[in-house]
Amino acid sequence: MFVNICDDKHFKQKWHLSAVKKEELQMKIGQRIVDLRLQKGWSQADLARACGKDRQSLERMENGKVTPSVYSIFEITKALEISMSKFFNF
């Protein structure tokens, strides 16, 4: 059964999505990547290598300049050895 994560009340409350703009969500996702990367003690280059991305792409994600795909987030969480749920802080 597929559940639309953006309709989930807990997800909306955690990420404050009731009236969020695309740019705000990009910034929240980017900051989450930064926070998790720093918890691991990694530089952008370290994470980029670990998830098979170039550092500039990762930098754009972290700075909220682009919207990472679900697959990009999956690759990042895999490199950081965390679940997608933990990334979204469930």
Give an overview of the whole structure:
This protein has 90 residues and is mainly α. It has one domain: Orthogonal Bundle (434 Repressor (Amino-terminal Domain)), CATH 1.10.260.40. 62% of the residues lie in helices and 0% in strands. It contains 6 helices and no strands. It has helices at 9-15, 22-39, 44-51, 55-62, 70-80, 84-87. Helix 3 (44-51) crosses helix 5 (70-80). It is globular and about 35 Å long.
Features:
90 residues, 434 Repressor (Amino-terminal Domain), 0% strand
What is the topology?
Layout (H helix, E strand, L loop, with lengths): L8 H7 L6 H18 L4 H8 L3 H8 L7 H11 L3 H4 L3
How do you describe this structure in short?
The chain is built from 6 helices and no strands. The protein has 90 residues and is mainly alpha-helical. The model has no long low-confidence stretch (mean pLDDT 86).
Beta-strand residue percentage: under 5%
Q: Total strand count, please? A: 0
- The helical percent reads 55-70%
Structural class: mainly alpha
Element-level helix/strand string: HHHHHH
Query: In one word, what is the shape?
Result: globular
- Provide the CATH architecture: Orthogonal Bundle
